[in-house]
Amino acid sequence: MSTLNIVNKSPFEKRTLEQCLKRVGDGDSVLLIEDASICAVAGTAYQDQLNATAELTKLYVLQPDLDARGFTDAKLLEPVQCVDYTGFVELVAQHDRVHSWL
Amino acid sequence: MKFAVLVNEGPYQHQASDTAYQFVHAALQAGHDVMRVFFYHDGVNNGTRLTSPPQDDRHIQKRWSDLAAEHKLDLVLCVAACQRRGIVDEDEMKRNGKDADNIAEGFRISGLGQLIEAGIEADRLITFGD
């Protein structure tokens, strides 16, 4: 059973990203949306934790939310893949379960 | 695939109701079935027809109503959350002795059973909130 984990808040505001990363398993995915999208940018305090997580799980970021925050041309973490809303829908369909970390 | 969506946040609060709308729109465009959108907690504020946002801003309630009309979406507001926040249809207006109703086109008021049913019947239930 694969799980798509959706995180929507900045880790500088809430601890949901850290809680999520501690619990994801092999074959799961993490999708960063809304304020959490900023963690996909290279150089934040969460870079090492995300890179380590990416050895087991796939990391995605919602591109429109990066764009809305002025990070269109920013350098992203190497393992992060960008998706649009269509890609978001595909991720939900591809995984057995969806968990929003609220 | 059959999707159900839960919206727990009000319009213009943070971003959840916008993300939920964009997700539902994209799912419908991709040919998926969205069997129900359930609005809970402050999410019920998406369903009042009395909002008048500035003309150059998105009209979140109207956007939901238009999408519901186009795709025969089932937009359900939680009755207990509505009573607390003053979202009223004609039945609730009479039942609670109010002098007006304010539910928007395409929305209906019902109970939590509708959320449970959506969770059971849909292949995926996706939650958007704070």
Tell me what the structure shows.
The complex is a heterodimer of chains A (102) and B (130). Chain A has 102 residues and is an alpha/beta fold. Chain A has a single domain, classed as Hypothetical Protein Ychn, Chain: A. Chain A is built from 4 helices and 5 strands. Chain A has helices at 16-23, 47-53, 63-68, 85-94; strands spanning 3-7, 29-32, 58-62, 80-83, 97-101. Chain A is globular, with a radius of gyration of 12 Å. The model of chain A has no long low-confidence stretch (mean pLDDT 97). Chain B has 130 residues and is α/β, with parallel strands linked by helices. Chain B has one domain: DsrEFH-like (Hypothetical Protein Ychn, Chain: A). In chain B, helix 1 runs parallel beside helix 2 (60-71). Chain A binds chain B through residues 6, 8-9, 33-35, 64-65, 84-86, 88-90, 92-93, 97-98, 100, 102, and chain B through 1, 3, 8, 14-16, 19, 22-23, 25-27, 29-30, 32, 124-130.
Compact description:
The complex is a heterodimer of chains A (102) and B (130). Chain A has helices at residues 16-23, 47-53, 63-68, 85-94; strands at residues 3-7, 29-32, 58-62, 80-83, 97-101.
Q: Shape of chain A from CA axes?
A: globular
Structural class of chain A: alpha/beta
Text of the CATH class of chain B:
Alpha Beta
Annotated CATH topology of chain A: Hypothetical Protein Ychn, Chain: A
Strand segment count of chain B: 5
Unreliable residue runs of chain A: none
By helix and strand content of chain B, what is the structural category? Answer: alpha/beta
Give the name of the CATH architecture of chain B. 3-Layer(aba) Sandwich
Record keyword descriptors for this entry.
heterodimer; A: 102 residues; alpha/beta; Hypothetical Protein Ychn, Chain: A; 5-stranded parallel beta sheet; 4 helices; 5 strands; B: 130 residues; globular
